[in-house]
Amino acid sequence: MTDALPGGAPPAGLPPAPRPERSHRESLFELVVTGLVGIVLILVLFATMQLYFAVQDGIRYWVADSYVPLANGAFYLLVIVGGVYLVLRLLRRGS
């Protein structure tokens, strides 16, 4: 009686079947992919910061001086709402 139980679990007293080990090539491939994803994320962060400052310069150039604080406040609020939305979306996706 070495058949698995109806739930798929091995019978009591038997050690679990050994897991097949991943090859060195698979782990190296995963490491390279993880490194590339990290590099892309750093580039995206840099581009986001550049866009943020470019929008600030655009606001200073296109908006009258008396309305620059209002335009900056609206932009900051938009950035905060967008960031909170993305964080909540990631948290919901993860759970």
Strand runs, count: 0
How far the N terminus sits from the C terminus, by CA atoms, comes to 40 Å
Radius of gyration: 26 Å
Task: State the helical fraction.
Answer: 55-70%
Order of helices and strands: HH
How would you sum up the major sheet? none
Total number of distinct structural domains: 1
Count of separate DSSP helical elements:
2
Stretches where pLDDT is under 50 for at least 5 consecutive residues are none
Structural class: mainly alpha
Indicate the proportion of strand residues: under 5%
Q: Can you give a write-up of this model?
A:
By secondary structure, the protein is mostly helical. The protein has helices at residues 24-62, 68-94.
Set out the fold topology:
Elements: H1 24-62, H2 68-94
What can be said about this structure in brief?
This protein has 95 residues and is mainly alpha-helical.
Any descriptors?
95 residues; mainly alpha
